[in-house]
Amino acid sequence: MRFNQWLENIAVYEAGKPIEEVVRKFGIKEEDIIKLASNENPYGSSPKVIESIKQNSTKASVYPDDSMLDLKNALATKMNISVENLIIGAGSDQIIEFCLAAKINPQSKILIARTTFAMYEIYAKHFGTEVIKTPSHQHNLQEFLQYYHQYKPDVIFLCAPNNPIGECLDSADIVDFIAQINNDTLVVIDGAYQEFAAHKDVKKKIEPNTLIQSFSNVLYLGTFSKAYGLGGMRVGYGISSQEIIQALYKVRPPFNITTLSLVAAIAALQDHAFALQGIENNFKQMRHYEEFAQEMDIEFIPSYTNFITFVLKEPHDSTLICEYLLQKGVIIRNLKSYGMNAVRITIGTQEQNLKVLRLLRDIFEARG
Q1: Rounded to 5 degrees, what angle do the CA atoms 146, 147, 151 make?
Q2: What is the pTM of this model?
Q3: Which residues contact 249 (CB under 8 A, 6 or more apart)?
Q4: Looking at the domain 13-42+271-364, which fold is it?
């Protein structure tokens, strides 16, 4: 069977290994496995979310409210925007797909950092679009400007903070950058980890309402998967001008969010204290990884997220380290596919982190 020729150049997205696979492969009990590969919230979901799902469980057979007005109203109040500036997706990555479907074609180009969220490239290639990458692994806005003028992309992605390495642009620098971009170029600001960045450093905090008031060509992405602990419910959102939102609705399928996902997201927004406690714990626990890296002379990228990236040097190899930990029931993320000898570790609970650091110490002390 023949398929679109550009599918030949698309690498399948590699999600973090599921716990079930480790159980099958190594015979380790599920309760003994620590999964720190997918940046899920180690503290789970708010009790209010769990209770809301229970109370609405009988609605699982009913299609959701396709207007999603209750969730939109809650988000609009929180973000100080209009509901007309919002679109809801099955995770923020679905909205990435929407914006590319609305904007690009095989003659288009998109511009991204060398190392960033893989789905920007994968979705772009679905449409046969050329992907331009800056030379630096981290976001370098001078490189972005140079490549913008050289290649004239239709869409630019800025991941702030950046997944999978954790660095984050200052919000003022993002604003200065957008001001130099033509209004017909869509600038997507991926704020999946913004709750963490804004808590750690106010200079990183992005105000979506201010952005869309100042610029008509910006789309901001947010998610409930990280700080709010709803990775399994798949709820994301986009904030933009009414013109852009209306265009995205033309490619959105009906009922793209489940009934239970909607009620879970609304409940999560109502428990800010739960999300804040998780964020504070995240950075307290991250300090242990930073101290370990400094002690062992391991390069790490200062992180504004719920994960930390260790950049390794010989004789240490990211693939071997990930495999060793996997055999011990610990799942972390290998960044070798991004051209980096590096590992990304989600910040877990104190108990999880102590075990992971103990195993990492064994590795680094044994190999010197």
Answers
A1: 130
A2: 0.93
A3: 87
A4: Aspartate Aminotransferase, domain 1 (3.90.1150)
Contact 153, 111 (CB under 8 A): yes
CATH topology assigned to domain 45-269: Aspartate Aminotransferase; domain 2 (3.40.640)
Q: Rounded to whole angstroms, how far apart are CA atoms 207 and 302?
A: 22
Name the pairing type of β-strands 333-334 and 342-346: antiparallel
Instruction: Write out pLDDT tens, residues 308-328.
Output: 999 999 889 999 999 999 999
Q: How many CB atoms lie within 10 A of CB 337?
A: 13
- Sequence-distant (6+) residues with CB within 8 A of 30 are 19, 20, 23
**Contact of 105 with 82, CB cutoff 8 Å:** no
Its sign, for the CA torsion 205, 207, 211, 212, is positive
The pLDDT tens digits for 192-203 are: 999 999 999 999
Domain residue ranges of the chain, discontinuous segments joined by +: 13-42+271-364, 45-269
**Residue tagged 């288009």 (tokens):** 108
